[in-house]
Amino acid sequence: MAITVTEAAASRVAAFLENRGKGLGLRLGVRTSGCSGMAYVLEFVDDLNEEDQIFEYYGVNIIVDAKSLVYLDGTELDFAKEGLNEGFKFNNPNVSSECGCGESFNV
Question: What are residue 40's DSSP bridge partners?
């Protein structure tokens, strides 16, 4: 099981961690939410949990808990700027459908 990160996403995470002044990396997870069932969660990690898996790309750690990894296996985390909008993009091959607003997904 694996997660990949583009250079653009890793650079953005590194900038966030530098501005924050501490942190082991960024946690990528899922939670039950929205009209399609699941939503992505991104949060800073200061302490690791026993079941965490660490994926290191371009000097940045992406940390995923075991329960979330089942839904995120094969996901590529990217960062894109489109006009005035910018943000992380999740290219998840496990997604079977997404809600119309793009806030949640189903596997």
Answer: 30
As a whole number of angstroms, the distance between CA 7 and CA 23 comes to 19
Residue 32 DSSP code: E
Higher pLDDT, 33 or 4: 4
Task: Please tell me the pTM assigned to this model.
Answer: 0.83
Express each pLDDT in 43-95 by its tens digit: 999 999 999 999 999 999 999 999 999 989 999 999 998 888 899 998 888 77
* Cα gap 101→34, rounded to integer Å: 10
Whether 13 and 87 have beta carbons less than 8 Å apart is answered as: no
Distance from C-alpha of 100 to C-alpha of 107, rounded to nearest angstrom: 15
CA-atom Rg of the chain in angstroms = 14
